[in-house]
User: Fold this.
Amino acid sequence: MQITITARHFELTKAIRDHVETACLKLNKYFDQIITTHITLAWENNRNLCEMSLHASKFGLQSQSEEVDMYLAIDNTIDKMESQIKKLKERVTNHQKRSIKEFDDFSRASLYQTAGANEAKKLIKTKRVIPETLTIQEAIEKLSTSEDGYYIFKNVETDGINVLVRKDETHFKLFEP
Assistant:
């Protein structure tokens, strides 16, 4: 994590810098994907302001506080950022757990009504799969051992979802969206 500290209208001491750096390093125990942290400390009209912006892999968070003492302002800003990170982490992990529970059984059947009134209902089977990360050669080997005519996988080289279809014993088709 890269920590940048900016001081406005006062001289930044080594003690304040050390306090900020140790406080920022505490945030790593909650969320280890923090890329940069920028902290602005200011002295304006006999009050101490501390603003913090944090950039993680997919998120950007901000917090600020105003106190009489600079150390208190830093601590309050870090506490606010801690609570934001906890909420964010809880939201991300709960979302992932929910999606894993949702796909426990992987296949579902649903009724589909066609557009015409005289046409009968058709049953469409929907199969949801979690693709494995494989090379094309590994996918060919898996398809050769399975009874299905196709294999869905995540390609290591392109980092995209691909579909491998068996034409016959020696020929295959690869679909890359």
